[in-house]
Amino acid sequence: MASPDSPASSVSSGSSRRSLDQNRPQTLEDLVNHFVASKRSLNTQTVLWRANEIVTSARDLLEENAILAAKNSSIRSIVDEQVDALEAVRRGIDVVEAEVQVEFKQLLHDLDASYSGLQSTLAVLRDTPIEAVLQPPGTPQKHLFDFIDNATVTNLKDSLRACIDRYNEAHTSLDDSTDAFDTALENLHSSVENVPNTPATTSNPSPIPSLYHDLEAHAREAAQAFQSLVRHYDLCVTALRHTEGGSAAATQATGDAPEPSGDDFSAPPEPMTDEERQEMLTVLQKDAVEVEDVVSEIRERGSEMTFLLLQIENHITHLRNEDSALANVLKMIAHVAAEVKCIIGTSRSFHASWLEDTRPTLVSGIEEWENQREFYERFDLAYAELLVEISSRRRRHEKAKRKAEEAQRDLDRLRAEDERAREQFTVTQGDFLPLDIWPGLRDPPRKYEVRTVGYEREVEGEDEEAHDEEETERVVQSIPQLGRNVVERALTRVKRRM
């Protein structure tokens, strides 16, 4: 009977079989042919050797797979964390820059507005002429602008322009640093995206354990199939030993090559009954039909194992490539991280320059523009009020002059009355009174005059009356006569700004 682990039990039912006549007695030639075929089938042992090498290699690759898979997963996690940290630094720099830029633009707007207001005020001063009556004769026409210190405006403007230039230089330096940082981050992202992803599934991250399991199954099945071939070979040797002339025929058919199983045809066979021999030949005949199929099966399993090993090696190659790419990414991260300190330093320098130089200078400049504008507006208003004041002084002067003239007329009238009274007294009583009774008896009345009194100054060798007339004229001329339209315009400007 065929044993369960015979070649017949090692092949599928769909294998091709050679047609044999089960009832025909086996001749010596048949037994020799079976023996030669079985001995040839044992050449598949090289497949088993290769299978053993494949399993050993696959076992090593299985270990490497576990190491690389864990390593790559860990490095990917580290890479993600480091990239997130670098991105956070970049976003932080953007936040600082954006905040400064927003405030800088607002301060520039306020600065432009205050400077425009100052320029408008200065334009008014340029267009406001000094009334000719207020200037000495022959003086060229002047305007209010001629009485201000324009160098203050120019110096402040130059100072602010230099401050803005310093800011732009600091911002350009920051832009250069961030551009280089962005390029490094883009290269890093590109490298991360180009890291080969090892083929895997969600349920089984690595196919190698399954492939290795299939390899072992094929190796085990191939070994079992080969064992059936060995048993078949041993059965052929036993049959030839129990057949007259079988050993000689086998030796002649196969030459002097040693037998794979170490059998020696010269050794006497163990006793066997005819029934046992017939049963043995029946099994031999049945198994001989399956030899070619078993050999094909072993070779197919060997080929399949080679294919599976190739898949494992391909997967390992992916893992190695991934590991190498991740190692390069780590080097890039280390390089970028080394530059982060410089970039952060540039950002801090930019922010410090803003807080310590640009911002306070611009705020101070805005306040200075506003103060100058307010001062020059007050100057313009003061000039308008001056014109009104001159007009008021002129009116008061005219009123005082009228009062003085009126008083002088009254004094002159009283003096004339006094003279007439004294003359009448002299006519009536003068002949009766001696002159020495009162020295002032014949004196004329005291003369009183109303005149303009200027500031005190010593006058030597000048006629007092002439000096008084000159002083009176000087005082009168010190209050110019302004045109009515000039005063009305000045009043309008004063009322508009009140």
Automatic annotation (TrEMBL):
Example GO biological process: piecemeal microautophagy of the nucleus
Alphabetized Pfam families for the sequence: ATG17_like
InterPro entries in alphabetical order: Atg17 (IPR007240), ATG17-like_dom (IPR045326)
Acidic residues bias locations: 459-472
Compositional bias (Low complexity): 1-17
Compartment annotation: Cytoplasm; Preautophagosomal structure membrane
GO cellular component: Atg1/ULK1 kinase complex; phagophore assembly site membrane
Stretch list, region Disordered: 1-24, 247-275, 456-477
Keywords, in A-Z order: Autophagy, Coiled coil, Cytoplasm, Membrane
Superkingdom per UniProt: Eukaryota
Membrane topology note: Peripheral membrane protein
Autophagy protein ATG17-like domain location: 41-433
Family membership noted in the UniProt record: Belongs to the ATG17 family.
Listed PANTHER family: AUTOPHAGY-RELATED PROTEIN 17
Name this polypeptide is given: Autophagy-related protein 17
Species whose genome carries this gene: Melanomma pulvis-pyrius CBS 109.77
